[in-house]
From TrEMBL:
Identification of the protein by name: Uncharacterized protein
Organism ancestry: Eukaryota, Viridiplantae, Streptophyta, Embryophyta, Tracheophyta
Organism of origin: Melastoma candidum
Domain of life: Eukaryota
Amino acid sequence: MPSRRASGQLLFDTLSMTQLNKDRKEITPHDLPRMFQYTTTLMELMEYGKTDAWLSMELMFHLSILPLTRQLTNISGNLWGRTLQGPKGRVSPFACISCKKVHCSG
């Protein structure tokens, strides 16, 4: 699991730099215990978390993620509201039938 997290972090860092021209400070897991010792460093850690959240939102808007999710949801025959809520188990029965037909014919 650490490799997936590291690759996601690398992608986030790369996109924030190339798309938004904004650099972010990397905090290693080794630094975390030290940052909880003092109020000033804890506030600094909270500021880094807030900055990361804002960068994520800026990337989402810059890359037009929401309109893309709506288009992909409509193509797959699902409801966008359900997609935004995030349940993984809901699949359109028509999509399942189409997938079976394609799988059987190929």
